[in-house]
Amino acid sequence: MNRLGRNHDGYHGEPLDLAAVHAATAAAAAHGWSVETIATIHADAIIGCQRTGADDQRRVYLSAGIHGDEPAGPHALRELLAANQWPAHTGLWLCPCLNPAGFRLNRRENADGVDLNRDYLHQRSLEICRHTEWLQRQPDFDLTICLHEDWEAHGFYLYELNPDGRSSAAEAVITAVSTVCPIDPSPEIDGRPAVNGIIRPNLAAATRPLWPEAFYLLQHKTRHSYTLEAPSDFPLPVRVAALVRAVRVLLDGNLGIR
Which one of 54, 65, 228, 238 is most buried, by most CB atoms within 10 A? Predict the structure, then answer.
């Protein structure tokens, strides 16, 4: 599978049509999810969705669209919501697009030029203030999954934050995704050591002056988190398929059962 070769010094691929986000929200509502507006900023609604039951044995949170130049994540969540094939006994919380203003501008940051995925410690942006307020109203999660893209990547890769050494699905994710998308073989990705597309980074809070969403979640809402990174220089359907495949592996496993 060949790279497109168009992402030089930034993302130059397909923008996200926000109609895809509205379709995701409509699909969630149609299938009985509880849908609420977390915030309305610059006329754009940031949505939170919830699907829970009395017999839930684990709780899983998913998010996408925090960077406005990463359309595959919202598309993947829309596909998953439309298919409505979720594991039994699993409570689900989902944010399909955390930065709609960024997608309108087709850039990483929000309308004020803030990288939202570096704002979870200081919380200077309204988007992250409202998002963390919403998160604090939810119960703790057994697993969190953040969907991303990387325009510099040579293939799919992931971050795993797992300080308690819980059963890991990272290798299973890589194996499953490799059937639909190349895996980044680099020994170093984003400045961190990687092995077969898996990064397990340093978790020391003092070394992280700017917190991404995954780090905030680990400090406040979960003890096991995955960040999935699709390679932006491959066709959009490939990136979406990679993220969907990865999410399904994580959801279908027995990770986080209490």
Answer: 65
